[in-house]
Amino acid sequence: MTSDEGLTVTQRRYVSAADAHYGGNLVDGAYVLALFGDVATEACIRMAGDEGLFASYSDVQFAAPVLGGDVIEVTGTVVRVGRRSRELAFEARVVCRADPDRGPSASRVLDEPVTVVTARGTVVIPG
Q1: I want to staple 77 with a disulfide (CB 3.0 to 4.6 A). Which of 8, 47, 90, 98 is the partner?
Q2: Which residues have C-beta within 8 Å of that of residue 66, sequence separation ≥ 6?
Q3: CB 119: neighbour CB atoms within 10 A?
Q4: SS (H, E, C) 1-24
C-alpha cells in the first residue's frame, strides 16, 4: 500500500430547498456528483498540494433520493494509486432529514444514515 492508498476525506453539506429542482422536493443527481468533485479536490490537495483534475467516473449508482433539507455526508477514499492518477471510491449518505410533519423548520438526525449515491472515479494530479 502506498502512502496515498486509504486516504479518506469526508465533508458534510446542508441541501437547501433552493437546490430542489423537481416535484416532491427532489434534488438532481448532479448535485451529489459536484460534492464528489469537492471531496476529490480536497484529496488531491492532501496528496500532492495540487487541486488535480477529475478525469472520469467508472461507475455511478443512485440508490435513494436526495431532498431539500437533507444534510449529506460525502466520503471519498483512495483505493488505487497510479503514477499520476488516483482512483477513489465515493459514498454519499443522508445523515439528517427535514421532518415537515412536526413543523415547517423541523428536522431530525436519522438513526441510520441512508446511502443515496455511490461511485468510483479517477483523478489526475499534474506531474
Answers
A1: 8
A2: 15, 26, 27, 29, 31, 32, 72, 92, 94, 116, 117
A3: 19
A4: CCCCCCCEEEEEEECCHHHEEEHH
| DSSP letter, residue 127 | -
One DSSP character per residue, 81-123 reads E-SSEEEEEEEEEEEEEE-TTT-TT-EEEEEEEEEEEEEEEEE
Cell numbers for 31, please give them.
Answer: 448535485
Mean pLDDT, the chain, whole residue set: 95
Q: What's the CA gap between 59 and 90, in Å, rounded?
A: 10
Q: What pLDDT was estimated at residue 72? A: 98
